[in-house]
Write a structure and sequence with these properties.
Length: 449
């Protein structure tokens, strides 16, 4: 097929701000709110109809503990804690004011959607564009970003800003702006979650065994690894039970196939349950607005976060976030998953069945927490661009741990603060004063260790 040449086009600059944030998951929203609270005028752009990313659009209502592994020290606060307090007032969250096992803090994603709207609308300095798709960026002669081009119902338009944050998960702005991107050899596989009513099985019913029994008859059944949870302030059960193997989530055709394959898996599960338990009134209630992507491309930053340093708690002068979530790697080739926990144990599961436990730390040793630096959010060569979210520059082990939301929420906040510093001091992102980032974060309610 021959290419089509588009004529040059004059584009209207529809909005201007100090900072433009692409992507409205909690990562992007928290970045925007922290920068606005410090005084920046912010534009926040989201391609879907709501904020929250995987937590709302993907139905994943689970954050992890705010405490270190001893359970004695709270290590995460900031906007994560503020949001949990808001959810608590709506009875929409499980206990979070004390240590919880890594199986986490459950919340209601629909109430999170409402509270994220309120959080953003409280900030008069934030202008929001929903249902608006980032399409490309425009460079200044010195290579910095002059504007981004976006599209929505009103057409195509430009947004000018002094500093930009890519919080798109996929790194869409970084990619267009020419930041070198890395595709992992085995990216963690995507999953579509689903919500069901009457998800209550008779005593003794074994979902795994049932799936194996029907696997030949229903070849679309998921691979067998799953987890799920009762949703607070709701009678529904959320199941994260599909897995798309060998999927490049940066490829539009593969993602199209993955969306439909995941729904075939959910359909097969329903057919199986109706056959096996015909009396049970199980019903499918909600499908996600987008398949949940665990891993796509990573940026090349000024310093990659390496698992071996992070899990040795090596000195980290630019630490902006703390976490305890284990290195949790879903295999993209089969039904296995491995957890390297901070208690020193490494467990391998196949289809949710524990198959081995080994130690990665010497006996009786454990790690209280790990830290995430700012440097892995600073794209190499960029002057007015920062990145926060799952595209951060981390190797396989480090990414397996930092990829969860309580960690990325903190990274979003830090990048929002760092962007404000660049604006205030008219400085490149390469020259951010980390001590000041940490101090501003602490003053704004984050726990900085
Ligand atoms: C099935 C599944 C289960 C998980 N379970 C957990 C769990 O239990 N607990 C946990 O903490 N973590 C969990 N994770 C991991 C975690 O949810 C993700 O790593 C995290 O949400 C990634 O955050 P993000 O901000 O980088 O990206 P996302 O949440 O993907 O958000 C990116 C946002 O950018 C927007 N966007 C993208 N492109 C554009 C564009 N071109 N223009 C405008 N907007 C755009 C998207 O619409 C989206 O709102 C899970 C992930 C998956 C997929």
């Amino acid at each position: 097929m021959a290419d089509i040449l588009l004529p040059a086009e004059r584009i209207n600059v529809a909005a201007e701000a100090d900072l433009c944030v692409i992507g409205g998951s909690c990562t992007g929203v928290f970045a925007a709110v922290r920068a606005a609270r410090l005084g920046a005028k912010v534009i926040l752009l989201e391609r879907q109809n709501r904020f929250g990313g995987v937590a709302t659009l993907g139905l994943v209502g689970m954050w992890h503990t705010l405490y270190d592994t001893s359970g004695e020290q709270q290590i995460i606060a900031g906007l994560t804690f503020e949001m949990l307090e808001r959810l608590e007032k709506q009875n929409a969250v499980s206990a979070f004011r004390k240590p919880v096992p890594h199986y986490g803090i459950r919340f209601n994603p629909e109430i999170l959607t409402l509270e994220l709207d309120r959080l953003v609308q409280e900030q008069t300095k934030i202008r929001v564009f929903l249902n608006t798709f980032f399409s490309t960026s425009v460079a200044n002669p010195d290579g910095s970003i002059a504007a981004i081009i976006a599209e929505n119902k009103s057409g195509r338009f430009a947004i000018r800003a002094k500093v930009f944050i890519d919080a798109s998960g996929d790194g869409v702005l970084c990619k267009k702006a020419g930041v070198p991107m890395r595709r992992p050899q085995h990216p963690q596989p995507p999953t579509s979650c689903a919500r069901f009513s009457a998800w209550k099985f008779p005593d003794g019913f074994d979902l795994h065994a049932c799936m194996e029994k029907y696997r030949t008859e229903l070849p679309d059944l998921p691979c067998g690894y799953y987890w799920g949870m009762d949703m607070p302030a709701s009678t529904l059960f959320m199941l994260a039970g599909t897995r798309i193997l060998n999927c490049d989530c940066d490829d539009a055709d593969q993602i199209t196939d993955a969306e439909m394959e995941a729904r075939r898996q959910i359909r097969a599960l329903l057919v199986m349950l109706k056959k096996e338990l015909p009396e049970l009134p199980i019903a499918l209630e909600t499908l996600p607005s987008a398949i949940g992507i665990r891993e796509g491309l990573h940026i090349q930053s000024i310093a990659q976060l390496r698992g071996q340093d992070m899990l040795a708690l090596s000195p980290c002068p630019d630490a902006i976030a703390n976490g305890t979530y284990p290195v949790d790697i879903h295999n993209d080739q089969d039904n296995s998953i491995s957890f390297k926990s901070l208690d020193g144990n490494q467990r391998l599961y196949k289809g949710s069945k524990l198959v081995s436990t080994t130690r990665w730390l010497p006996d009786h040793q454990s790690l209280p927490y790990y830290q995430i630096p700012l440097r892995c959010h600073i794209p190499t060569g960029a002057s007015n661009l920062l990145a926060a979210g799952r595209m951060l520059d981390a190797d396989r082990d480090a990414f397996g741990a930092v990829r969860v939301m309580v960690n990325l929420n903190q990274c979003g906040e830090a990048v929002g603060v760092a962007a404000f510093q660049c604006l205030q001091q008219n400085r490149s992102v390469q020259k951010i004063d980390y001590r000041e980032t940490r101090s501003l974060l602490a003053k704004g309610g984050s726990i900085i260790l």
